[in-house]
Design brief:
five-stranded antiparallel β-sheet; Uridine Diphospho-n-acetylenolpyruvylglucosamine Reductase, domain 2; Uridine Diphospho-n-acetylenolpyruvylglucosamine Reductase, domain 1; 23% helix; alpha+beta; Uridine Diphospho-n-acetylenolpyruvylglucosamine Reductase, domain 3; single chain
Length: 373
């Protein structure tokens, strides 16, 4: 293990008091006490030693697309993953592809589409890095990354060694894995390996995509599906763009609740008593492969009275998508949390259902427990 140093000639370069807001899509938050970028795997080891030597926590940052930083910043070392590269050792036609953790996710998806590899086309336009996708088992429009991941190369922070975790070991479920549940903060993801389908047909499981291609006489190509997903996401403010004020967000701030059939019935009865649901109306939902129901958080939010565009001059709900909270200019983290708690409280009283946040909260004390209901 190399000696950790801030000397650019000897490895990891560490800077002090670096503003974190520019490294996030929300553009909110204070500085990191220490900040570094990992462009080689050895830098991750060096960062661990640096943080341990100064007795400060280490936080690994990807693309900053799913994080809310506290106004006071983070009193530790933020290590931004900048490992790059896409590999297909047996050739793209074999479908076995690996991507470094710091590789841009949408660039990776485009690469796969260009090489006629199916399995990730519906996840086009999702901001962030490849290494962040296994953590929450990122998914969109009928696909989840856990369905095509074969293994994940990680650094075990406890045992100070690298190892390969198979997909089963990652325990992928809806927006979760061991990386954000049972083994949170234990592993640093270095590389992700995928098993994709060469010349496979695109996934058209989602209603928006089915409707988009319903009139077609031939199955759409992967490129056509990618382009359609990008168009749909842009219409909802889910494509990062300096010209779109509604895209200054972390995407969907809340998870779609996954509940039992009995919970759905109770929620509907409670909402009808409050006049938020018609007698013959039901909460939009679909059954998961685990036999429970995923219901629309956006529907709950809007029926609880939070319409698109709700908010003030600093922070609010996107005008295009009820799940996206946006920084309208000069927002502080506390402004965001106040709106989050307000939404959670009213949805709870209206439907009896807790909304859980998707966004990672960094630098808050105490931790994010109140945001989980």
């Amino acid at each position: 293990m190399r000696q950790v140093s801030s000397d650019p000639q000897s490895g990891l370069q560490v800077r002090e008091n670096v503003p974190l807001a520019p490294y996030t899509t929300f553009g909110v938050g204070g500085p990191a006490r220490y900040f570094a970028e990992a462009t080689a795997e050895e830098h991750v080891y060096q960062a661990m030693e640096f943080a341990a030597g100064r007795r400060v926590p280490l936080f690994v940052l990807g693309g900053g697309s799913n994080i809310l930083v506290a106004d006071a910043g983070f009193q530790g070392l933020v290590l931004r993953m900048a490992l790059r590269g896409i590999e297909a050792p047996a050739g793209a036609a074999a479908g076995k592809v690996a991507a470094a953790a710091g590789e841009d996710w949408d660039r990776f998806v485009e690469w796969c589409v260009d090489h006629d590899l199916a399995g990730v086309e519906c996840m086009s336009g999702i901001p962030g890095t490849v290494g962040a996708t296994p953590v929450q088992n990122v998914g969109a429009y009928g696909q989840e990354v856990g369905d095509v991941i074969s293994s994940v190369r990680v650094l075990d922070r406890q045992e100070r060694r690298t190892l390969e975790l198979g997909a089963a070991e990652c325990r992928f479920a809806y927006r979760s894995s061991i990386f954000n549940t049972t083994h949170r903060d234990r592993y640093v993801i270095l590389k992700v390996r995928f098993d994709l389908r060469p010349r496979g047909e695109p996934c058209l499981a989602h209603g928006d995509l089915k409707n988009s291609f319903a009139a077609g006489t031939a199955p759409p190509t992967l490129r056509e599906v990618r382009d359609t997903v990008l168009r749909i996401r842009k219409s909802k403010g889910m494509i990062l763009s300096p010209d779109d004020a509604d895209s200054k967000s972390v995407g969907s701030f809340f998870k779609n609740p996954v509940v039992s059939e009995a919970t759905v019935r109770r929620a509907e009865e409670q909402a009808r008593r409050r006049g938020c649901l018609a007698p013959d109306e039901h909460i939009p939902r679909f059954e998961t492969k685990e036999g429970v129901w995923k219901i629309s958080a956006a529907f709950l939010i809007e029926r609880a009275g939070f319409r698109k565009g709700h908010g003030n001059e600093r922070v609010g709900i996107s005008r295009k998508h009820a799940l996206a909270l946006v920084n309208r200019g000069g927002a502080r983290a506390q402004d965001v949390l106040a709106l989050v708690r307000d939404i959670q409280a009213v949805v709870r009283s209206t439907f009896g259902i807790e909304l859980i946040t998707e966004a990672v909260l960094l630098g808050f004390a105490p931790p994010a427990k109140p945001l989980a209901g």
